[in-house]
């Protein structure tokens, strides 16, 4: 049901202070305090629950076009809305690759048709993700989709000259280049985090230096180009040191960490279950602790899901043949609460920063991640912090089922999501 106005009763913005009522009209926050409900308004009783700006995911794989057997824009949008998201960025490694305006405009328009979340296509940096020739960045940036982020995610833009040109070109377009930091020469045949556990289990090791070295190189290139660089899915403790150094020099670099790199470690490899195979790999407990502290300190700017659905045949096989990736949209909030809020590393204001505000700023979205104030766009999420839930892949909205959290009990549930004042999910169901 959609109405022109919604009244949220007894909610706590950012989880602080006494509960207030929030009136939403014509897509914006009209009044905060004790407003009366207009005739015909949809009323949601918050009962002291936490109100936050809607979440923004800079790293989502929606698989459409080309792999609709794993996910579609419709099913991925449903998972996003149920997870509290109001905007997601769909990565370019589709089939065909989103390296031209025809594909990026299709993704944008399809997202608008579904209407559950704003779907922003990410354009490829190079043609076919091959790392050789720059894609039509200018055409995509000026198309109907207004592409704001470019990435060859799934592949590293490895040639330093190609990466330098992409960064230089991005400055004129006012866009950000997001790098999948992995030196492919160091990860040939790699299957798991290089360490004692991989050696014991017989997995070829994936060194942290493969990530750290590319991040260091690209920070230097970005600083000289005066460009904005974003580092995808940071996983290694050493990368945090590189990011801190680059930021101290004034480099315009931002970085994301995934929920699974905040919670899971390479201890999971001992099960030999390919659901735990991901790129970059699950790393050590020491790496996980550094990710958490870096996120709390702001060295890592935000959380991005790297939601990577796969069809059963791509996961239900031997480890070496399995595709890397995990579901993440519906579990991200709960993992952040488990790893960051419960230990006291973030408060709810911090959750808004890492899941909403900083991602929106990095991507340049003027109507997302906004303050909870009168006159601001009503892209919102209502969170029940006191309820726990058990993850079951069969009950998730994604077409795929490859969640690493199967059977795990997690804190916090999304009670409602609103996109420009329109309720898109409520009490675990799409509206």
TrEMBL record:
One of its GO terms (biological process) is 'de novo' UMP biosynthetic process. Pathway: Pyrimidine metabolism; UMP biosynthesis via de novo pathway; (S)-dihydroorotate from bicarbonate: step 3/3. Zn(2+) 1 binds at residues 59, 61, 153, 306. The keyword Cell inner membrane does not apply. Residues 48-236 form the Dihydroorotase catalytic domain. Belongs to the metallo-dependent hydrolases superfamily. DHOase family. Class I DHOase subfamily. Catalyzes the reversible cyclization of carbamoyl aspartate to dihydroorotate. This is Dihydroorotase. The lineage of its organism: Bacteria, Bacillati, Actinomycetota, Actinomycetes, Pseudonocardiales.
């Amino acid at each position: 049901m959609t109405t022109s106005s919604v009244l949220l009763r007894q909610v706590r913005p950012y989880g602080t202070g006494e509960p207030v009522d929030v009136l939403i009209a014509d897509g914006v926050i009209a009044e905060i305090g004790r407003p009366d409900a207009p005739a015909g308004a949809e009323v949601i009783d918050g009962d002291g629950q936490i109100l936050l700006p809607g979440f923004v995911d800079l790293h989502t794989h929606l698989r459409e076009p080309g792999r609709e057997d794993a996910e579609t824009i419709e099913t991925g949008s449903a998972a996003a809305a149920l997870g509290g998201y109001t905007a997601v960025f769909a990565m370019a490694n589709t089939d065909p690759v989103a390296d031209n305006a025809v594909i990026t405009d299709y993704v944008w328009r399809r997202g608008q048709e579904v209407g559950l979340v704003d779907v922003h296509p990410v354009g490829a940096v190079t043609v076919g993700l091959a790392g050789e020739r720059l894609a039509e960045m200018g055409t995509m940036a000026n198309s109907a989709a207004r592409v704001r982020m470019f990435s060859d995610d799934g592949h590293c833009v490895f040639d330093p000259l190609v990466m330098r040109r992409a960064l230089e070109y991005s400055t004129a377009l006012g866009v950000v280049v997001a790098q999948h930091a992995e030196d492919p020469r160091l990860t040939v045949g790699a299957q798991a985090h290089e360490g004692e556990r991989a050696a014991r289990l017989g997995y070829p090791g994936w060194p942290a230096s493969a990530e750290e070295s590319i991040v260091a190189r690209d920070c230097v290139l970005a600083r000289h180009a005066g460009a904005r660089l974003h580092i995808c899915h940071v996983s290694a403790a050493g990368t945090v040191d590189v990011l801190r150094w680059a930021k101290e020099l004034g480099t315009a670099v931002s970085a994301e960490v995934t929920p699974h790199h905040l919670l899971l470690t390479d201890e999971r490899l001992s099960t030999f279950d390919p659901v735990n195979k991901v790129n970059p790999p699950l790393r050590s407990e020491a790496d996980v602790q550094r990710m958490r502290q870096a996120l709390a300190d702001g060295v890592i700017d935000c959380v991005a899901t790297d939601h990577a659905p796969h069809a059963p045949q791509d996961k239900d096989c031997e480890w070496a043949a399995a595709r890397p990736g995990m579901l993440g949209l519906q579990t991200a909030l709960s993992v952040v609460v488990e790893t960051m809020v419960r230990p006291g590393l973030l408060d709810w204001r911090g959750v808004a920063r890492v899941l909403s505000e900083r991602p929106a700023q990095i991507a340049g979205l003027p109507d997302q991640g906004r303050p909870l104030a009168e006159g601001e766009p009503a892209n919102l999420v209502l969170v029940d912090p006191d309820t726990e839930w058990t993850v079951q892949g069969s009950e998730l909205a994604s077409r795929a089922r490859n969640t690493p959290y199967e059977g795990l009990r997690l804190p916090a549930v999304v009670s409602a999501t609103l996109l420009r004042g329109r309720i898109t999910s409520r009490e675990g169901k799409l509206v």
